[in-house]
């Protein structure tokens, strides 16, 4: 017995009268152990109430062959395309992907990162660049190979495989401006602790301020990503004294919620008001009218991120990140402003 | 140095001239270590090229406080609602959720299960009941506390917190029959290695056979869950010599894909053909016409599954699973058959 009083593999081996190697094989690959021996070992395990020592196995193999990802939320398919592609490359390389979620809380993200590292993750994929100093110190001190994604900063010293959220915001706002919109509302994600949401809104503001005279921002609402939240925010921006002719949303979930609410209110999209998204999520092509949005090449980004992370894990310190390009997708939800709008 | 030649925590402690406890504290909670000491340790770490021994930490704490889930795919939001609720309960209990995905492949599921257990997961949530004997033997032999979900079998000896897929299939087929449909096509998920997809289709067949005279099944197509796949399958079932008046889909993603394709083809839903889903996914309320479907109470199921799994991990062997109830949600995609249909 260990000092903790818990039975060990050695105890099982002694009681069963077989080697520890046989016990280990029986636990991990029972088909390779003769039936009679298996039964002896099972009997010993049952008698002792033995529970295998998970940590011991990790220690024995040193490398667990897993890679961790911390995404902000499991609650919608926002990250699904990139994750699936990321996973496919890792699976081909014999690695297991473990996904944890932070609930958009930097302290919880740090806990998840520590848990993944403690559980033996060989490397991490993290969303966005903006995180507290103690998290960054931990990653540096523990020398955890990690790639950042869903963002891009050309001058960053971090290894980033992602896209420029600010550019995405600028693209969609420029598309609205080009059609003549000058009274614009913004429904964004909550920008606190979320550099992607903040970047998207900053890009929209850049574009709206860059023309002369600048377009008027009638209202800005920040809300959680969700259909109902998008709908509620739409009600708020449409209540303003001078209603916008276009509502630029920080992602497709919010934009889809806004379109559903417009339908409920008898507001026609795009005849009465235009609504746009960002991401080119499945919802964007399903909702009617279909969303004009900015496409994020999720699969390409996920694959690239996996390749770079595998390189870092293999010890290649020369690897740098790369930017994947976003592009405007024109569908039906954006048209010119209504006459007099 | 270890026999492997890798530097150890002890090496760092010797070179830095501090205790191993201080090195350990410096790595895990640097704010608690004086700056000068931190610098000494960092210098030693840099000189030695030390990488912390993750396995060692797991071993030291015995319990990693993580719980694993293996879902079939990360590629859409099918499991998102339940997972998010599952995670919320676990987070409150101080546990980290690690999600892996099997790609609907039983061998990959088994690899992911072993990886999660090797990485120290205290318990597992698995989707469905149908898995190879070696996977079940492994779970039994390693005494891994685990809960099955997304399915329900009252007589199973496993601990299941889920719903009856067969009942869900029956409910939606009965709704179509009640409106007078007698020529029905089925677009299901791939039933091989997927007891949920198989159960849903079996339930539809049960209902269609139970009336007198039985309804005619014009065509059955199995396909991967995806919008394009649903659309392609819709083309196939509508090509049949005698077209169906209702197309029952195995989930909302397939049904949404079918509705989009019907729109492209100029086929009116529900005037020319009715289309139904299962799950009550976000897509079901977003697509136009909105889907008549069967609601799976995902959040309730996720919360319950988490509570039961936490109980099993805590050693409560008396816990049994429970069934959450599915219910019909009537929207616009299902109406009576067209005249003469």
Automatic annotation (TrEMBL), chains A, B:
Organism: Sedimentitalea xiamensis
PANTHER family, alphabetized: HTH-TYPE TRANSCRIPTIONAL REGULATOR GALS, LACI-RELATED TRANSCRIPTIONAL REPRESSOR
PROSITE patterns tied to this protein: HTH_LACI_2
Name under which the protein is recorded: LacI family DNA-binding transcriptional regulator
Keyword annotations from UniProtKB, A to Z: DNA-binding, Transcription, Transcription regulation
Source organism phylogeny: Bacteria, Pseudomonadati, Pseudomonadota, Alphaproteobacteria, Rhodobacterales
GO MF annotation, one: DNA binding
Keyword Lipid metabolism: no
Pfam families reported for this sequence: LacI (PF00356), Peripla_BP_3 (PF13377)
Residue ranges constituting the HTH lacI-type domain according to the UniProt record: 7-61
Gene3D superfamilies reported for this sequence: 3.40.50.2300, lambda repressor-like DNA-binding domains (1.10.260.40)
């Amino acid at each position: 017995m260990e000092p903790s009083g818990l039975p060990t593999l050695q105890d099982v081996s002694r009681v069963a009268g077989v080697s520890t190697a046989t016990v280990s094989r029986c636990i991990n690959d029972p088909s390779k152990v003769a039936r009679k021996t298996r039964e002896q070992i099972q009997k010993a395990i049952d008698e002792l109430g033995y529970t295998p020592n998970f940590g011991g196995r990790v220690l024995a193999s040193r490398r667990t062959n897993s890679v961790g990802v911390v995404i902000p939320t499991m609650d919608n398919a926002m990250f699904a395309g990139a994750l699936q592609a990321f996973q496919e490359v890792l699976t081909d390389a014999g690695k297991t992907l473990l996904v944890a979620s932070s609930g958009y809380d930097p302290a919880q993200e740090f806990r998840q990162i520590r848990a993944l590292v403690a559980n033996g993750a060989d490397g991490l994929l993290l969303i966005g660049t903006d995180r507290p100093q103690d998290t960054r110190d931990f990653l540096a001190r523990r020398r955890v190979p990690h790639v950042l994604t869903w963002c891009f900063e050309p001058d960053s010293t971090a290894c980033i495989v992602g896209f420029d959220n600010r550019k995405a915001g600028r693209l969609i706002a420029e598309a609205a401006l080009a059609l003549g919109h000058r009274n614009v509302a913004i429904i964004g994600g909550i920008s606190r602790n979320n550099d992607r949401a903040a970047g998207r809104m900053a890009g929209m503001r850049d574009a709206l301020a860059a023309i002369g005279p600048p377009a008027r921002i009638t209202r800005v609402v920040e809300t959680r990503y969700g259909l109902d939240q998008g709908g509620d925010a739409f009600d708020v921006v449409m209540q303003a004294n001078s209603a916008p002719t276009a509502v630029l949303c920080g992602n497709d979930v919010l934009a889809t919620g806004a379109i559903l609410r417009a339908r409920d209110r008898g507001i026609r999209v795009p005849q009465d008001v235009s609504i746009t998204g960002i991401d080119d999520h499945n919802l964007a092509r399903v909702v009617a009218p279909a969303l004009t949005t900015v496409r994020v090449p999720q699969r390409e980004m996920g694959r690239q991120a996996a390749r770079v992370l595998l390189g870092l894990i293999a010890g290649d310190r020369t690897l740098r990140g790369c930017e994947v390009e976003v592009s405007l997708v024109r569908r039906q939800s954006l048209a010119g402003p209504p006459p007099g709008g």
